[in-house]
Amino acid sequence: MARTHSSPSGRPRTRLSAADRRASIIDAATQAFAESGYQRATMGQIATRLGVTEPVVFQNFGSKTGLYAAVVAHATGQMVAMMRELAEHSDSIGGLLRQLLSPDHIDELHAPGSLGVIFADAMTLTAEPAIGAAVRAHVGELADVLAEVIARGQRDGELRADLDPASAAWLVLSFLSAHPFRSAVMPDRRHLEEHIAAMTLGMLLDQGESPS
């Protein structure tokens, strides 16, 4: 709960509770890391976004890696919520998977300022114990939700009945997360990415469904 105090000028000043302060730091850090990446974003920049001093950020999270681990958890929660909402409003799980695996969506997911930047960075930082633990714990939550979506597609008769939903979920997540690798080394990346997406869909869809 926020408390109101008087500033030296006599104007009321709002003091955030500890939980609200941490939440505000995580929000600001998520934006900073998504826009600039882990290496370029600084604790000072995050503090400036909030209008606080840099020690305030360190007092709440201890280190940059500790803050990034909290951001991974927060970003996963946002992704899980988005996935649930997409599935809830989708009439076709096959159509939803086509959308998720499309080159346009993958480009958008990994554009500066997007949550995909958080996860792409996190995969390169798993040697840091706090970040590695956060990635393993929270990305697994996203895989679990995607497995639920795939299981619904099986019940609806759109996806192959012999699929293991958990394995299929990790297949989709692997395709989404490998975008930086493909962008860095793949010739004619967009053309090949379309074909790889179609092949992936072909492995998921029931034979009566078209991957196009």
Automatic annotation (TrEMBL):
<dbReference type="InterPro" id="IPR001647">
    <property type="entry name" value="HTH_TetR"/>
</dbReference>
<feature type="DNA-binding region" description="H-T-H motif">
    <location>
        <begin position="42"/>
        <end position="61"/>
    </location>
</feature>
<dbReference type="InterPro" id="IPR009057">
    <property type="entry name" value="Homeodomain-like_sf"/>
</dbReference>
<feature type="domain" description="HTH tetR-type">
    <location>
        <begin position="19"/>
        <end position="79"/>
    </location>
</feature>
<dbReference type="Pfam" id="PF00440">
    <property type="entry name" value="TetR_N"/>
</dbReference>
<protein>
    <submittedName>
        <fullName>TetR/AcrR family transcriptional regulator</fullName>
    </submittedName>
</protein>
<keyword id="KW-0804">Transcription</keyword>
<dbReference type="InterPro" id="IPR036271">
    <property type="entry name" value="Tet_transcr_reg_TetR-rel_C_sf"/>
</dbReference>
<feature type="region of interest" description="Disordered">
    <location>
        <begin position="1"/>
        <end position="20"/>
    </location>
</feature>
<keyword id="KW-0238">DNA-binding</keyword>
<dbReference type="InterPro" id="IPR011075">
    <property type="entry name" value="TetR_C"/>
</dbReference>
<dbReference type="InterPro" id="IPR050109">
    <property type="entry name" value="HTH-type_TetR-like_transc_reg"/>
</dbReference>
<dbReference type="Pfam" id="PF16925">
    <property type="entry name" value="TetR_C_13"/>
</dbReference>
<keyword id="KW-0805">Transcription regulation</keyword>
